[in-house]
């Protein structure tokens, strides 16, 4: 069934686990993720970015997600990832999404509040939940000193004020994760002290972690071995994600790991069977690679197996 994340997050918070929010762009990606969730009996968030809507066409993506909902008995949230303005959030609410993100994190505090509040008012009236973001996502290496860190990472006092004034349902925070495959130059580090402070000040309130791919080294090695070039790719260690999931983090965003799993698999097929040109011959194994990766994530990292 198509659901909002309200109940999912309540249970995840109490059960000290997190729900995986996976970015979807085409049929094989959706099928790989949904099969994994089905095998693991895991609640699921499928998220669509503006870029995904542009690539696949909003109608195709929505219909593919509808097919997944029809085919399984899983609770599935259809979520807009990084909505940058009111209009795209409105379009998705009107389109049947059950959750939207308004990302005003690049705006000054008061403007972020005003924009978020506007989206919350529109969405709540229509039974849709809203995620917002406060703080700027960047690697801890980018924050060279304490004052810079304070300027980019989420300020706990501001987080409380932001949630109170907007009425938002969940909040993405910045504690050192970043988008993409190159998250840390040196040792991976996240500001867990800050996360705990935020969690303590906002009890029972769901926190979202963006930029949370772990960039499994097996995919990096396979990609590089079969003609790709992603040297030095590094993600958030699984142990840190487990730790975050035990705290107030209820939603963990994963896109890069899907891209790497699919790409590594396709590169391998291309190299090993150069004579193959039937797309099913390489998209099929790619879809399986996504399924295996997501299953591992659900079972061993997020802790949301058998939680439906
Ligand atoms: O946060 C970004 C997600 O990975 C989506 O990426 O905008 O290229 O679809 P995208
Ligand atoms: P990754 O790039 O770490 O997969 O993060 C995805 C994300 O945050 C989507 O909003
Ligand atoms: Zn993100
Ligand atoms: Na949690």
UniProtKB/TrEMBL annotation:
Zn(2+) 1 binds at residues 82, 179, 210. The active site is at residue 81. The keyword Ribonucleoprotein does not apply. GO terms for biological process: fructose 1,6-bisphosphate metabolic process; glycolytic process. Binds 2 Zn(2+) ions per subunit. One is catalytic and the other provides a structural contribution. Pathway: Carbohydrate degradation; glycolysis; D-glyceraldehyde 3-phosphate and glycerone phosphate from D-glucose: step 4/4. CDD domains: TBP_aldolase_IIB (cd00947). Zn(2+) 2 binds at residues 103, 133. Keywords: Glycolysis, Lyase, Metal-binding, Zinc. InterPro entries: Aldolase_TIM, Class_II_FBP_aldolase, FBA_II, Fruc_bis_ald_class-2. It is an enzyme of class 4 (lyase). One of its GO terms (molecular function) is fructose-bisphosphate aldolase activity. PROSITE patterns: ALDOLASE_CLASS_II_1 (PS00602). Its EC number is 4.1.2.13. Dihydroxyacetone phosphate binds at residues 180, 211-213, 253-256. Belongs to the class II fructose-bisphosphate aldolase family. This is Fructose-bisphosphate aldolase. It comes from Irregularibacter muris.
